[in-house]
Amino acid sequence: MFPTVKEQIDVIKKGTVEIIPEEELVKKFERSINEKTPLNIKLGCDPSRPDLHIGHSVVLNKLRQFQDLGHNAILIVGDYTAMIGDPSGKKKTRPQLSFEETRENGKSYFDQAGRILDIKKTKICYNSEWLSKLDLKELINILSKFTVQRILERDDFTNRLKEQTEISFHEMLYPVMQGYDSYAISADVELGGTDQKFNNLVGRDIQKRFGKEQQVVITMPLLEGTDGYEKMSKSLDNAIGITEEPKNIFGKTMSIPDTLIYKYFELCTNLSAGELKEIKETLEDKNNNPRDLKRRLGMELVKLYYDEETAEKTIEEFDTIFIKKEIPDEIPEMSFEKDRMKLIEIMTTGNLADSNSNARRLIEQGAVKIDGKKITDVNLEIEIINGMIFKVGKKNFLKLIKEK
Questions:
Q1: What's the CATH code, domain 5-220?
Q2: Which of 297, 234, 255 is nearest to 393 (CA)?
């Protein structure tokens, strides 16, 4: 039913930062094989935002690996803990979400997670199922197992105390409530980014204090965004969304720094160890152009979230626009009744610029071409000719259609 312990360990260790403790994971695998019983693998997610990006895929891919090894994947949507807001990595209190907001975001979350997980074999829980049933007596009992000093050990709180930044009391409940999730579902393993280490270790503590076998904690690296510096985040506009259009996934991948190419391959794709070794060797060879590997990375990501046919079409379109400098087969069209129009008006009407000032700036920068000819006159009035093609920047096109 299950691969050998060594085979499972080799798969799970790939790309991880820590396994705490590894010897306990070995014992759990041994027992699982002997008893022919799958392990419960927990991944908690607070639906503070409805959109997933490939930074989230790092832990989701690891959960999928456990699934493929025959274990139970349990995805916990923190509709109750999201009302608190995870303080991990935050310099101030998160805005509180309503229960309705967390529920709505949660639906979107596991719909998107289904692009990575085998959703038919994934158990999805809302932690309101058990947290909403706790009365004050039970909550007091849980909180009595922890000291204020223990909770304040986390760097986020320590730093805020030093900087005299307020810590709301409800934030201190967060790691305890997330840890209680592990107790409620009898987790054998919990996955999380390195920023979740404290929270996940609290889960170990709660299980021990309430007489259950402790979970193993596995931490995964945090993925830098396309800027190469900050953690990937929609709010920082450096994220590659897993539900974005294929051309956007591919285009954003092509924009990442060369230093992140291998990390993205290792953490965000399903390539084998042998294939990863080849990529590392290719990167180390200065005679190779990193752009070629980015093209492959972009194709692998589109293939992962769509399909191979879509990935091939996307890379063909990219080559047409950026390498062959040709016009793509399919570009937006817009009909005009007028015979003549100001260039700026055409750009704003045709969604090539979001404002007159932006259109003017693009023209002045030489980013605008009409039928391949660069235009720099911001006051230019255009005679509308059927089929004329506007290009703004590297990839924004518009074909004008003259209505008869």
A1: 3.40.50.620
A2: 255
